[in-house]
Amino acid sequence: MTEEKAYIVVLGAGESGVGTAVLAQQKGFKVFVSDNGKINDYYKKILIEKGIEFEEEKHSISRLLSSGEAIKSPGIPDNSEVIIRLHEKNIPVISEIEFAARYTNAQLICITGSNGKTTTTNLIFYMMKKAGLNVEMAGNIGKSFALLVAERDPDFFVLELSSFQLDGMFDFRADIAILLNITPDHLDRYDYEMQRYTDSKFRIMQNQTENDLFIYCCDDPVISGELGKKKPKAIPLSFTLKFLRDNTAYVENEKLCINYKNNNLTMSIYDLALKGKHNIYNSMAAGIAGEVLRIRKDTIRESLSDFQGVEHRLEPVIKVHGIQFINDSKATNVNSTWYALESMTNDVILIMGGLDKGNDYGELKDLVREKVKAIICLGVDNSKLLDAFGDVVDIIQEARSMNEAVSRAYRIGEKGDVALLSPACASFDLFDNYEDRGRQFKRAVRNL
After folding, report:
1. Cα dihedral sign for 240, 310, 439, 11?
2. Per-residue pLDDT, 366
3. What's the confidence (pLDDT) of residue 229?
4. What is the side-by-side strand order in the sheet with 7-11?
5. Cα–Cα distance between 136 and 162 in angstroms, integer?
6. In this structure, which topology does domain 315-446 adopt according to CATH?
7. Where in the chain is the domain with CATH 3.40.1190.10?
8. Is residue 389 within 8 Å of 361, Cβ to Cβ?
9. SS in 3 state form for the chain?
10. Phi, psi (5° rounding) for residue 268?
11. How much is the pLDDT for 186?
12. Which of 3, 58, 52 lies closest to 24 in space, CA to CA?
């Protein structure tokens, strides 16, 4: 940026935006934060204490258009008026991740995928901490990457990256890129074009060199299809549930096997802390990362066997009169709910619904027939769910609040059943976010 353009606009004043503003100020930029909504008091206090200028409940377009660069919250769509106006003036619009990466020399381990990225990111971070490495975790999870770059100087960052963050990343380069899977999600943000969403996910390997690593699931048909067209420069390391020794990680005789540089690690899949087929994939991806980082085999095995999982992802709450309540609020797409149901061994009362993102519920029907005795539709508009599952289950009811949904599930349930919140939808019709939805679920269960 030239001297006269050393003026940065930050759009959105949440965790990402405020962290970006703090880092930009630290690096000598004049910073202006603009949020179209009301700024949370916690973040407002940080801006005031740092002397960073801001506005809320509006975007002063003329002022924004005088900036040299804009850094936007991942929640702001590219087709919003403010972004279109910035593009018309040829003002670069980038993500927090792109900006913060300019100011760290840490090795970057980056994870994306439609499902499992939060679990895998946490698992890799847990493993690295257990190994005594100087590592921080950020991105689409926890603390702002930019704020951590401003405050600390670790040797490694483990970053969970969403497609929205990847869309605003151009010069960023991952040292280790992990692509878990690609299934339809957020298609409303991509004009319902699956290829655009797929291209977004594959941005995780952009700018990688032959010295970098690209870890991916070769069982995923979308990833395999795209790799036929996109030849990665990075060293490819694949994982599969099949017995294929050409892959870096695979399953043989119910053992998870990792073979990196002719160095073999094996452990029983029954010793994995995280259950279900999808979590074997997550564990393989994390295990490969551990091997690449030269973490001791015993530490990798211990991490894969004693990791506690993450909040809102197949999180057991409590049993009430023999009914096990499970919080899977983070299941914001159909594929996540498919994985949740696939791992269930008892009859399920399924609480689902919310803001539909262009979902196709067809792929759930067979599992619902097999495992679900009742569905509670929790949303403002449940018509699509009622149409999809009305003739699939005997009991299908509607609820307009979490308390009502939990009460209905409890009344339907019998000893040995599972009441599973796995919405397959975004949360924004009735809740602030999936965390709010999950916490309301747990509160309602404990109040039964």
Report:
1. negative
2. 95
3. 87
4. 53-56, 30-35, 7-11, 69-72, 93-95
5. 18
6. Protein-Tyrosine Phosphatase; Chain A (3.90.190)
7. 103-306
8. yes
9. CCHHHCEEEEECCCHHHHHHHHHHHHCCCEEEEEECCCCCHHHHHHHHHHCCEEEECCCCHHHHCCCCEEEECCCCCCCCHHHHHHHHCCCCEEEHHHHHHCCCCCEEEEEECCCCHHHHHHHHHHHHHHCCCCEEEEECCCCCHHHHHHHCCCCEEEEECCHHHHHCCCCCCCCEEEECCCCCCCHHHHCCCHHHHHHHHHHHHCCCCCCCEEEEECCCHHHHHHHCCCCCCCEEEEECCCCCCCCCEEEECCEEEEEECCEEEEEEHHHCCCCCHHHHHHHHHHHHHHHHCCCCHHHHHHHHHHCCCCCCCCEEEEEECCEEEEECCCCCCHHHHHHHHHCCCCCEEEEECCECCCCCHHHHHHHHHHHEEEEEEECCCCHHHHHHHCCCCCEEEEECCHHHHHHHHHHHCCCCCEEEECCCCECCCCCCCHHHHHHHHHHHHHCC
10. -65, 140
11. 67
12. 52
CB 96 within 8 A of CB 20: yes
Tokens of 111: 């994870």
Would you state the pLDDT for residue 125? 97
Q: Hey, what CATH class is 3-91 in?
A: alpha beta
Mean pLDDT, consecutive 10-residue segments, the chain of 448 residues?
67 96 96 94 96 94 92 90 94 96 98 93 97 96 94 96 93 98 76 85 96 96 91 93 84 94 92 88 97 97 91 91 96 90 94 88 94 95 94 95 97 97 91 93 96
Tokens representing residue 136 in the block: 């921080």
Q: Per CATH, the architecture of 103-306 is what?
A: 3-Layer(aba) Sandwich (3.40)
> CA–CA separation, 317 vs 445, rounded Å?
8
Q: What stretch(es) of the chain map to CATH 3.40.50.720?
A: 3-91
- Exposure string of 82-96, with b = 16+ CB inside 10 Å and e = fewer, is bbeebeeeebebbbb
CATH 3.90.190.20 domain residues, the chain: 315-446
Q: How far is CA 199 from CA 171, 203, 230, in A?
A: 16, 7, 10
Cβ neighbours of residue 419 closer than 8 Å, sequence gap 6 or more: 323, 324, 325, 326, 348, 349, 351, 406, 409, 410, 413, 445
The span from the CA of 168 to the CA of 265, in Å, is 37
